[in-house]
Structures are given as structure tokens and as C-alpha cells.
Amino acid sequence: MGIEIFVVAVGILIFCAVFDLMVGVSNDAANFLNSSLGSRVAPRHVIMIIASLGIIAGVTFSSGMMEVARKGIFHPQFFTMPELITIFLAVMLTDILLLDMFNTFGLPTSTTVSIVFELLGAAIAMSVIKVLAADQDLGMVSEYINTAKAMIIILGILMSVIFAFLLGAIVQFISRLILTFDYSKTIKRYGALWGGVALSSIVFFILIKGAKGASFISPEQHIWIQSNTATILMWVFAASAVSLQIMISFFRINILKPIILTGTFALAMAFAANDLVNFIGVPLAGLYAYKVAAVSADPLSITMGALSQKVSTETYILLIAGVIMVLTLWFSRKARTVSATEIGLGSQHEGIESFESTKLSRVLVRMVDTFFSNVKQMFPEQIR
């Protein structure tokens, strides 16, 4: 078997990358569209344009994330190019079928969890085959897997769910405490300051945290941004608060709408920056492995230690992926199905539910409701 057959395999990987972008965006679109669509802050096409701009901006921030597919789950120096291509093909085909099945039934899922465990499963399977072929003990499988990094990634996923729940509840509680449910009066008093904090937080995650992975920002520029973070955020807060107060006082604009739309842009950008690796990271790793092997004297036997090195992804590749994601966002019916599921779960009105509540969820809701009822009794009537 010559190296020529792997040209076809790499072509299949690139073809799979396009399909994975389509099915992945169809599922993940709900994560950054449901807030705007559910609250109807603007016509659908306006929301879609803002989300599209966020995606295009976000893909240029994702260059640094591509290393996860190359060395985040396994040690590439223990595998040859044919073995890695086999792993990557198994991962991509599984990912496409799995995500498309979820999309068909309108079920949102985590593309990050999918790709991480697919890589882990495929790498373990290949490691077992190599260990058995070498007549070694199965305990040697752990040498092939980047156990420490894989555990960090998995724990990070689990912790992100917990932190998202807790921080979401805390921010919502504080926001309601300040603005109350009848916010028509309180938003005139505190809305500009509250909006300034919200927009400053959004800019912090867009610019400060996203800059380190951007393909177009030099190390010197990144250092400057990090050194002047406080100054940048102070000016953003001041400009945002003044602008929002002008909107409230002179134009009678509901400032929650531009804040939500800005958040939609930020979420779309974060999605593209963090999740793009889930769709094209594996095919790009396969392409890079083939390029490394092709220039070696023994392409079928050389180990892929070169994949452990830091490699920046070309900006044009990221932009092409971004365009595919945007087109999918606009034209995918399955994306609308998944969005409708999430919006329906957050509805405050009675109607036909896709999923009924469980006994455990009802118990948790009662416990939290009882807790906050008791806390509320501790405050004077005016504060309540």
C-alpha cells in the first residue's frame, strides 16, 4: 500500500469537514440565537445578520484552538500517519452521523463533548490494536493517551456546565433585584449603569479573552491589550453608560434590545472561536499529518511527533469555514428545528411541551422556590 491512497483519505476528511460544519452549526445555532429569537428583540433577518457577522469575526479567533485535535487527547508521537488518518476518518464519520441524528429529532447537544469522546474512543481503540499487535500488556494503552490533558478537557466541560448554571442564576437574581419585574421605572434610573456593566463584560470576553487565539493579532498587540485591560474596560463602560442613557432619555429606546443583540454577536463569535475546532480541527490535523509524512523518507512508518508542535491555521481556511457556517445558519431547516426546541423549553406560557418535567426537576424547583421565599421574608416590604 503506497502513500497515494492516503491522498484520497485526506480528500474524504476535507469533504467530511464541510458536512460536519453544516450539521454542527445546525445544532449549535440554537445556543446563540435562542435569546434574541425567543425575546423577539428584532426581525429574524436582523438577528441572523448580526449572528453571521459574529461567526465571521469569531473564526479568526479560533486558530489557537486547533491544537486540541492534534495532541489534546492522545500523544501523536506514538502513532504513524496511516494510524492517525484511520482515527480521524472514524471520528469524522461518527460525528456527522451522530449530530445529524440529533438535528433530525430537534435535540440540542454538545459538539465539544461529541468530538472529545469520539477522539478518545478512536484513539483508545487504535492503541489497543497496537498494543495487542506488539504483544504488550493492555496497561500500555495509557501511554498512548494524553490522560492528563484529556481529563482537564473533560473536567472543564463538566465544570463549565456547573459554572454556567450558577453564574446564570446569580446574574439573573442580581438583575431582577436591581431592575425588578416592573422595570419600566427602574431601568430609567439604573439601566444605563447596568447596561454599561453588561456591555463591558461582553467586550472583555470578545477582545481580552479572545485576542490570544486570534490569527491576525501579533504577540506584541496581545501583550498591549493584556497590559491595558483595565483602561480599555473603563472607557468601554463609560462610553456604554453614556450612550445608553442618551438612548433612554432622548430617544425612548428600550436599551435591553441593543444589549441582547450585542450579546448575540458575542455568543456567535464565541461559538465560532471555540467550536470551530470541533468541525475542522480533525481534518486539518489529518492534512498536516499527511504533509509531514509525504516529505519524509519513510512516509508510512514515520511517527507523527510533529503534530505536537504549535501550528497556526491560515486565516483563509478559517474564513472559508466561516462562510460555510453562515450559509448553513441561513438555510438549514434543522437549525430552526433545534432552535424551536430550546425556545419552547424556555417559554413562560402554557402549551404542548416537547419534554415533560421529571420528578427530580419538580423537587429541585420546589426547593429553590421555598429557599427564596424564606430569604424574601427577611427583607423589608419595599426591598421585596
Fold and architecture overview:
74% of the residues lie in helices and 0% in strands. The chain has 384 residues and is mainly α. The chain has one domain.
Short description:
With 384 residues, the protein is an all-alpha fold. Helices cover 74% and strands 0% of the residues. It has helices at 4-39, 44-59, 67-72, 81-104, 111-133, 141-144, 147-179, 183-208, 219-227, 229-250, 256-294, 315-331, 333-345, 359-376.
Topology at a glance:
Layout: H1 4-39, H2 44-59, H3 67-72, H4 81-104, H5 111-133, H6 141-144, H7 147-179, H8 183-208, H9 219-227, H10 229-250, H11 256-294, H12 315-331, H13 333-345, H14 359-376
Q: What global shape is seen?
A: globular
Unreliable residue stretches: none
pLDDT averaged residue by residue: 86
- For the termini, the CA-CA separation is 75 Å
**Count of individual helical segments:** 14
Number of domains: 1
Largest sheet geometry: none
SSE-based structural type: mainly alpha
Query: How many DSSP-defined strands?
Result: 0
H/E series: HHHHHHHHHHHHHH
Cα Rg: 24 Å
Give the % helix.
Answer: over 70%
Strand content: under 5%
Can you give keywords for this protein?
single chain; globular; 14 helices; 384 residues; mainly alpha
